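User: Can you fold this complex?
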Amino acid sequence: MNPGVALAALAVVSLATAVIGFYGLRISRTTGDFYVASRTVRPWWNASAIGGEYLSAASFLGVAGLILLSGTDALWFPVGYTAGYLMLLLFVAAPLRRSGAYTIPDFTEARLDSRAVRRVTSLVVVLVGWLYIVPQLHGAALTIRITTGLPSWAGSVAVVVVVCLTVVAGGMRSITFVQAFQYWLKLTALAVPILFIIFVLAGNGTPALAPPAANPTGVAPAGLYQNVSLLVALLFGTLGLPHVLVRFYTNPDGQSARRTTLIVLGLMSVFYLFPTAYGLVGRVFAPGLARSGQADAMVLLLPGELVGGTAGDLLSALVVAGAFAAFLSTTSGLVVSLAGVISQDVLGGGVDGFRLAAVVSALVPLGFAFMTDSFALAGSVGLVFAFTASTVCPVLLLGIWWRGLTDAGAIAGMLTGGVLCGGAMVMGALAGAASTPAWLAQPAAWTVPAAFAVMVLVSRATVHRVPKTMSRVMTRLHTPERPLATER
Amino acid sequence: MRSPNGRDAATNGTRHYAGTMPDSPLLTAAAVAVIAMAIAVVAGVGLKVLRSFRDLGTDAERATYHTLHAASQAGQHLRRGLNPAGAAKASRHLRTLLGCEALALMDTSGVLAWDGAAEELKPQLMRLAEGVLAGGRTAVLPAGQPAGPDGAPEDGTGSALAAVIAPVRAGTRVVGAVAAFAPSAGAGLVRATGEVADWVAAQVELAELDASRTLLMEAEVRALRAQISPHFIYNSLNAIASFINTDPARARELVVEFADFTRYSFRRHGDFTTLAEELRCIDRYLLLERARFGERVQVSLRVAPEVLGTVIPFLSLQPLVENAVRHGLEAKEGPGHISITANDAGAFAEVTIEDDGVGMDPKQLQSMLAGHTDGEHVGLRNVDARLRQVYGNDHGLVIETAPGEGTLITMRVPKSQPGHDA
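Assistant: Here's the predicted assembly.
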């Protein structure tokens, strides 16, 4: 495709992100509009913002690529990514909002009354965030290489620079509006091209090149264990993502936190129709993309392949814009929440500390991204979910729903989950992708129960360490808050 | 020189290696992290080993060091008073301090911690210590003799160990006891146990001091809780009175606003509120002020909706706005402008209140905030003191002003306040 068009799309998205970030709130109001100005974020807005932040490179590029490669097996990814919000809705959203804690370390410290738990949680959260940013940067590298022919590093560096500049310059002031905008941009950028492609294909009467059930690469389908394990990772992993949980703080109370989650479920379901459609169309009409090893770039290449000409270029530009919106929004959301954690726990929390922490939390994953090379975006993100599910998720779930949790139990469980899951990742790396057994490639099915079990057993053994504040905190988590006196 | 064949083999080797390279960035990232952790552990152990070889002075110096070290370690755990978690950790250090077989800490209701051997004695310990806890005198129980059927502690511990039980006295009350167990209870052990008990008592008293300091701080915050100024009530009622004949509808509206405003400011429950509620209160306040000043007071608002749910101390913004109106604009000719902003700043919410009024003399303001002079800006000092009390010294008001240049007040509050109910 035309590199100029892709670069223009990229520039427009970055600029739009920065401009909305800076000026989204510059509208001053007079006292007459007092009620408008002091209106809290509506669940619809916040849900869009959560969607914008959550839909990462894995959802935008990876899911379609996986469906192209492995067909219906890959459908578990969108199912898991979405259903994770059901878990969030049922178990976490409202109590976490009521806790008054802004980050996960804040929550664990308040719940378990222990600085040590806070430090361990912070460490885990920072690790999760960094691991999650790396695939975003890989996605950016891939997009730039495929669409403009520039070297890969240009894409990762571009994302990091834009994110650092906007965060450091205070451009994330109206972050809710930026992220909400990104959701709708992503949805449009996927929906318009695929609908166009389908109409063109139907209009031309293009013959199918392969039946949808045909396996274009001959890779063996995943077994039952792998699917179950993946689903465990995605369902439980969503509960612990730092950038998603921070968003719930924007809701004024637990009730609206639940409503928001419900809307997010709807938004996700709508969004994932389109990557699935891309995967299916790719399977039927462009199976060649799978064989050339460019499955992750399939979404970017499909418009050019099937429509071509100026229309194809324009559609591709739209997709590139959406892809960059995905990288930017997820990365900036993660960087902001990581910077919050790092600046508070290491740098003592000032404004300058926050900026420094933001730069650090963007540069470290950039280093990782340079050292590594990615082939399967959805797979890498799936592993991050497994890690989150084995560390942060047990402490959140048990912290909210079990009175017996102690600080010793929480630390032991998080460390067990982290070491088991991290160990499985490292072992898998040493064994190489081809010879990794299923239980190492998808460790969540045994690491998550192990983390829960250790947390419960150690807490049982250290009953005397149940914090004195437990009853008060639990009451606060589970009783509806008094209605705010802002509505008349 | 290398043959072309050899070079081929080398390239093949590289290619083969590239084939088994981890295909996911996470795997490599995790591997790097594990290696880094291993290096850190080795370095840490190495440092420890190196340190142990250093010259640490004479035996006497070392003994002093060890004693003081054990005492300071135990002291940290007793900082929250006699509780099971702290006592369990402290008893370990206290036992090394006394060099006895077993050591127990108890309060008046039960055994808090047991460290060392002979744990079978634990159920009987409260019975053995009864006299000590009631009478406040150190008891020495010899070993060997079985405990009497009526449980008289004079009969001995009933095991191979002798016991010294010394009371922990905070002030005049006995709040607990320290029990040391050793094969024989010599005068040395008795004296040392008594000293340890006194030391524990000092720690407990410190903890009580801490607790009462917290209570004092809470009481102070409550006392500082701002009240609406009598001037404002007087002025508002006068302004409303002036409308009763000319514009009864407006007067009625103002009375309702006034009622709402007073209901909010007189509320009794809770020391905290949300930014949204506080802004609502400011809106009412400004409506009433505008009834007096008319169009002379202009207000603009820019509020990030993300921070509206942030918890702030009750009535901590309204006094700042009132200060801007009374001291910034009242004294000024012509219309004045107040702008209120609330921003999302990472883990903090940042609220600013700016007016283009007459400003203040920074020096005078400083001495007023420090509490040296009772100036006109009591409301500011009150808010500043409360913010420092609740969030620490870094979170006081930041005031930028000069005579004739207006005033900009900035307040920074952490978003995360799980301990405070709005």
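Residues 1-23, 148-154 of chain B have pLDDT under 50 and may be disordered. Chain B touches chain A through 58 residues (CB under 8 Å).
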